């Protein structure tokens, strides 16, 4: 159900708590404030099927904006808070957004945007003045905290990350039901309840940015089930472990990069916590190195669940702790969609052989907004109801899926396919490596060769001796043809708080005029 239900049953219970500041929003407050904003949208002429965007840091007002859109039949689009003005304007124009909500913290990036995105008629800013924007608190206060006569359920339209070009909106049709109609209960809420045991008693920790699909979907799904979302303003490994204890967290979600950063904390920061309330830790977004996940099991016990899926929701693969411990490295079995592994021509491959991962559904479950070509390219050439996210993997004889890498990142050296993920998984375990990216660079003889770019741990000197140590280490753990030909060092890799690495930025440095080959 939507939170208005719990405003009547548990009005004083926190729907969301900001972990650092302790600021709270109760279900009664969430109901009232989202109703006021929905009234504002209606008065401004927004109608079901129109689009609203939010460009904001992790902020408690995020949830008022989300639920105001969802209870008004609107599409809700989050914008990566690190985008530059022209990138933000592109998303607003592409989606046809009629409203943009931002914050004083984003002023420098957002002030130039309205002049470039003229579709936005409603401009609001929370937490202080922003040139060209109305004050959110003042404008919302002008409207009654009353439900609209009709409250059709809206939807999210989130944009792909754009690591290989302009991001595209992932659009699904509106359901045509009222927001409090149980038949319209979101799929994420059904998954949280059925797979992860989330109930109204859940206290869910979200350490990632809300503009990303999973944090937004999971926190709002927890609220739709009457639970409390605890949101970190930004990820900090030591604080995350502390919050599990202080907020008596029952459920949490992570990406593998967060695991590796927690595990490299000093021993004293890993000890002295009471994590007895922590029942389920969920992770996704990228394959987790086997050794990293083993160490997390040692730290938290067998409570780590994994899934593989995308914002497109064309399929869903699920892995229990028991599945992973008996099949290390797997992301689990499909519980939504039938998996097909195919080669570049679309031919199905036998078990154990890596290829492009397709999910078969009764019909194509999504489209890329304003991009028919990208939608077609995501479909199998002969089966339009099979679709792919562009990932590469294989299925074993028991039906367990293993990811090897993204198709776009595969290296072809002398005709041999090399998957960077395996090499990254090897190097990230080394105690002197804080982060690593592996990709192909030009080689006149082989076409491509393997390059590693490493961010050393704090206090570790980046020099030739370290490069040789890491190359020798890799040679002890992976086949020689996969070992990087060379290692370069960076103070920090271009990784977003979501855990996603922008390899394109690194690759462009090495490919120069040839960069279009890898986009």
Structural features, described:
By secondary structure, the protein is of the alpha/beta class. It folds into three domains: 4-224, Rossmann fold (3-Layer(aba) Sandwich), CATH 3.40.50; 329-409, Luciferase, domain 3, CATH 2.30.38.10; 410-518, 2-Layer Sandwich (GMP Synthetase, Chain A, domain 3). The chain is 30% helix and 24% strand. The protein is built from 18 helices and 27 strands. It has a nine-stranded mixed β-sheet with strand order 2-1-12-11-13-14-15-16-17. β3, α3 and β4 (75-78) form a beta-alpha-beta unit. α2 packs across α3 (61-70) and α11 packs across α13. The protein is globular and about 70 Å long. The relative contact order is 0.08.
Comma- or semicolon-separated keywords:
six-stranded parallel β-sheet; globular; nine-stranded mixed β-sheet; 519 residues; 27 strands; GMP Synthetase, Chain A, domain 3; disordered C terminus; Luciferase, domain 3; single chain; Rossmann fold; alpha/beta; 24% strand; 3 domains; 18 helices
């Amino acid at each position: 159900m939507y939170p208005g239900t719990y405003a009547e049953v548990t009005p004083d219970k926190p729907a969301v708590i900001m972990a650092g500041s302790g600021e709270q929003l109760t279900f009664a407050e969430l109901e009232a404030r989202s109703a006021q904003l929905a009234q504002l949208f209606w008065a401004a002429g927004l109608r079901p099927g129109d689009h609203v965007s939010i460009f904001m840091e992790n902020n408690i007002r995020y949830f008022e904006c989300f639920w105001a859109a969802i209870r008004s039949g609107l599409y809700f689009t989050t914008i990566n808070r690190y985008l530059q003005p022209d990138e933000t304007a592109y998303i607003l124009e592409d989606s046809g957004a009629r409203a943009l909500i931002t914050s004083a913290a984003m002023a420098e990036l957002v002030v130039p945007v309205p002049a470039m995105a003229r579709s936005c008629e409603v401009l609001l800013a929370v937490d202080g003045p922003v040139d060209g924007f109305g004050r959110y608190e003042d404008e919302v206060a002008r409207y009654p905290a009353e439900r609209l006569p009709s409250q059709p359920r809206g939807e999210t339209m989130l944009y792909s990350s754009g690591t290989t070009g302009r991001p595209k909106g992932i659009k699904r049709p509106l359901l045509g039901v009222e927001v409090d109609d149980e038949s319209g209960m979101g799929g994420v809420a059904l998954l949280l309840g059925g797979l992860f045991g989330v109930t109204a008693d859940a206290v869910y920790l979200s350490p990632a940015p809300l503009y990303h699909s999973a944090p937004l979907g999971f926190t709002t799904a927890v609220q739709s089930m009457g639970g409390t979302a605890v949101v970190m303003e930004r990820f900090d490994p030591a604080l995350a472990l502390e919050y599990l204890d202080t907020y008596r967290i029952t459920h949490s979600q992570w990406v593998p990069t967060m695991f590796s950063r927690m595990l490299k904390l000093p021993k004293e920061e890993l000890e002295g916590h009471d994590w007895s309330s922590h029942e389920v830790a969920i992770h996704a977004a990228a394959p987790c190195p086997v050794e990293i996940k083993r160490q997390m099991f040692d730290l938290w016990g067998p409570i780590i669940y994994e899934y593989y899926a995308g914002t497109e929701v064309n399929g869903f693969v699920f892995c229990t702790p028991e599945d992973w411990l008996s099949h290390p490295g797997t992301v689990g079995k499909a519980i939504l969609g039938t998996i097909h592994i195919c080669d570049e021509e679309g031919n199905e491959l036998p078990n154990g052989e890596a290829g492009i991962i397709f999910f078969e559904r009764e019909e194509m479950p999504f489209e890329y907004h304003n991009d028919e070509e990208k939608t077609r390219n995501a479909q199998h050439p002969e089966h339009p109801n099979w679709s792919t996210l562009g990932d590469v993997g294989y299925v074993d004889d028991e039906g367990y899926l293993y990811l090897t890498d993204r198709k776009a990142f595969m290296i072809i050296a002398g005709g041999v396919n090399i998957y960077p993920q395996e090499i990254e998984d090897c190097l990230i375990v080394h105690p002197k490596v804080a982060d690593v990216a592996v990709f192909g660079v030009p080689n006149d003889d082989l076409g491509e060769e393997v390059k590693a770019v490493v961010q050393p741990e704090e206090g570790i000197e980046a020099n030739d001796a370290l490069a040789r140590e890491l190359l020798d280490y890799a040679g002890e753990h992976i086949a020689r043809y996969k070992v990087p030909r060379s290692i370069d060092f960076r103070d920090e890799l271009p990784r977003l708080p979501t855990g996603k690495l922008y390899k394109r930025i690194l690759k462009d440095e090495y490919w120069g005029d040839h960069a279009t080959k890898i986009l």
